[in-house]
Design brief:
The protein is of the alpha/beta class and 334 residues long. The protein is built from twelve helices and twelve strands. Strand 10 (265-269), helix 10 and strand 11 (290-294) form a beta-alpha-beta unit. 45% of the residues are buried. Residues 1-107 form the Response regulatory domain. Residues 120-140 are annotated as: Disordered. Its EC number is 3.1.1.61, 3.5.1.44.
Length: 334
Amino acid sequence: MRRLLSDLIAAPDLEVVGSAADAQTAQARIKTLAPDVLTLDVAMPGIDGLAFLERLMRLSPLPVVVVSSLAGEGSETNLRALELGAVDVIGKPRQDGAGGFSAYAEELREKIRTARGVRLKKPSGTPHPAVSPAAPGPGRFSTGTGKVLFVGASTGGTEAIKTFLSGMPADCPPTLVVQHMPESFTGSFARRLDSLCAPRVVEAQGNERLEAGHVFIAPGHSHLLVKRTPAGLVTELSRAAPVNRHRPSVDVLFASAAEVVGRNAIGVILTGMGKDGAQGLLAMRQAGAHTYGQDEASCVVYGMPREAAALGGVEEVACLSEMARRVLAGLHRV
């Protein structure tokens, strides 16, 4: 596996400087080889990958891309790796038909290139209980303002979304979230957020009614949209082609918000590589929605917010720790 990964990573701008079969060997080679990025399996002999990652990020932080099984219990383990400071996760190498490993190799190299340029953040460590900034009465945001919140993120987004939702009260506006992640992760991600945050967080199934205090995470296999019905606003899922190479796509969610919700929508774009969400956030702002972008200093990767700001889609810029408060403070603006 290590030889295969080395072959797949090799590119004119990427050099594999070494490999290790266990954590002890890896620790020694990191000191002597000083790599820019580390790929890491969580299943290793002796010290497991999570324990090694926790120690590494505490003592000598290094951008880490986890290469691991994405199925079953692996999804929970890999989410924990992201909490501990890993930049991204990718499954084990897989062939793509007659092309062999070409698609996988391209994805792996892209994740490594992204990791090379990230701003390392202090890992969150053990999960913490949500702290709500306010405790308004039931339904205040839904019935008082009619606002609906739309959130998009990519690289670094699992922790950013957790931080943002932890600042939301139990009866926050109905919220739809797109986070770029594998299909096997989104259910576990929603359950983890539900255990940490005051609002109810679920993986969207489609046709759920939008109500205050409910957060819907886009499943990894489908675009998430909002649809207006005689009974009110509901979630909608689509297996249409990827947009900006992503499904779910932030642009698809935001464009839906602009078309269906208009001035009652609130858009938030968080850390992430690329430009997904930029055009959609601009459409939201042009439709009268209030829009927010995470600032560069608090982003793991200042890509998506930067692209959205460059297009004129960002109305207000805020650091991640202040984003929930700023959004809540602006709910009653006309």
